[in-house]
Amino acid sequence: MATPTSVLVREMASGLVRIALKKNKKKQGIKLLEEGVWRSYCNGKKCGYALRRECGEEEWKVLQAVAPITMGAGVLPAAAAEVVEKEEAGGGEGELMYMRARFERVVGSKDSEAFYMMNPEDGSGGPELSLYLLRS
């Protein structure tokens, strides 16, 4: 997504965050999660585009660094996050902010899905972060 991590963290600190990824044109035979380019919205505000990317060697290194973590958020030091550019990191130079959580998937139709972040420690029981994929 085009939204810097620091902006997303600031939004989450102020309350619930709803991210909507919308696709206007449907291609024949393409599954919803295989769409390549999405228009993105964060709490109702346009925030650019999101692109589907394949996981490369550098991304696998980052995923391996957070593999022992089951839930939480934090910052990976520069040594573990050397693949991330400064602008994308949202932290100090070479650092990488991460968030790991359990998401509940709800399929509305072949053209709509939602992912709700579940926090078992939160007394309200509601999601702090919701991600919606919509195609028309």
Automatic annotation (TrEMBL):
InterPro entries: MIZ1-like_pln
UniProt superkingdom: Eukaryota
GO biological process assignments: hydrotropism
Name listed for the protein in its UniProt record: Protein MIZU-KUSSEI 1
Source organism: Linum tenue
